[in-house]
Amino acid sequence: MISTLVLDKIPATLKDKKVNYFLKINDEATCLNEWIGSALSIKFTEKRICLDCKKSVSKFYGQGLCYVCSMSSALNSPCIINPELCEAHIGNGRDVEWEIRNHMQPHIVYLANSGGLKVGVTRNDQIPTRWIDQGADEAIILCNTPYRQLAGQIEVHLKNYLSDKTNWRTMLKNIKDENVDLYTSKKEVFSFLPEELKPYISEDDTVYALEFPTTILNKSVKSIKLDKAPHIQGVLTGIKGQYLIFDEEHVFNVRTHSGYEVEIQYN
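Above: the chain sequence. Below: its structure as tokens.
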């Protein structure tokens, strides 16, 4: 069966440590985990649909946005990438109502083991979604903050000591870095924070574990992009982060192709 859909981030859930991915096809949620081991074809129709205004465009400016929306939409605000620039707490933003609804909300700063130790920021209700998107094998809440900008300030300070990036190649190998102890790292990071930020340290020391539907990859993989390879096909051998893994050789980042219309077929 061939289904046509516009790509966006793959929704996922976490239950008993196991990550389950879903794709909405014909208005029904289909579990992608069940496709592993099956032949999968993804064919680009050459149509690109802006995620905000929903217009068909010839080119994206930013992730899944047309030029006008990339310059005006809250989905592409500078504080999406750099939380410390958020002004929701002072009533400013490209779309104030959107900012209040999404950024003037409790946020956390977290530590994650995703092929190495990193620091990150997300809204409270995006736990564990954010960790799943980044392919984190485990994570721990470092700080609880009342709004996004404050969480961003803490992250910026910690960038002097920790990475805020995920090495996708290392992450996809699916080998947890056993040298990372998140509980110990949290205690060490406490000493890095200035006194005015220490009251936001979370008392929750739970280390959350995640198990992805993939295997250990013993060789390097090549990333495929639809603009250069409009038809991707092979056996789906795993999923981690936002990556579909084909034949343990090629990977396809679904989220970076947000707005691309594709035809999907599996058997």
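Residues 148-158 form the longest helix (11 residues).
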